[in-house]
Amino acid sequence: MAQIRSERGWLKQLLDMLPVGVMITDPEGRCLMSNPEADRINKHKFPPSSSIEDYVGLRLLYKNGQPVEHENFPVYRVFQKGEVVRGEKQMILYDDGTTIPISVSAAPIYDDMGRAANAVIVLKDMTDKESCEDALLGLTYEKRWK
């Protein structure tokens, strides 16, 4: 039992220092844990949920500003469609109307029987990258048209 506690402590320390947001859910979509970066990106501790349907309140947008449909939420696709999601560009719409660009990945975590027992969702804040790209585009535009 001491070894399990030690390994959990080690894993928590590892997850807490990652520069990306990490969330673990169960097959019903309940958020079992989130690391500090996931909480920062979501602007609050990611709420525990009772099912995948509870994520409907989370406002994800495609890059074109259209809402991500419930059946296209990464956690839904992992458990309901058996998909692995890698680096999809989306935005989170906050209550105050601001958005944050993210890259989201999601994959199943299999148990010993080969069943998807959990899912890991990884969020990367793309604000700095997009700001740099916008600045470079502005410089390119200025250089070309001056």
Task: Report on the architecture of this protein.
The structure is a single chain. The chain is α+β, with helices and mostly antiparallel strands. Helices cover 34% and strands 29% of the residues. It has 4 helices and 6 strands. It has a 6-stranded antiparallel β-sheet with strand order 2-1-6-5-4-3, with helices on both faces. The longest helix has 19 residues, at 127-145. It is globular.
Topology:
Layout: H1 2-17, E1 21-25, E2 31-34, H2 36-41, E3 60-62, H3 74-81, E4 85-93, E5 99-110, E6 116-125, H4 127-145
Antiparallel strand pairs: 1-2, 1-6, 3-4, 4-5, 5-6
Provide the descriptors you would attach to this structure in a database record.
146 residues, Beta-Lactamase, 4 helices
C-alpha end-to-end distance: 69 Å
Helix content: 25-40%
- Poorly predicted regions are none
Question: What's the shape?
Answer: globular
CATH architecture: 2-Layer Sandwich
SSE order: HEEHEHEEEH
Structure summarized in a few sentences:
This protein is an alpha+beta fold.
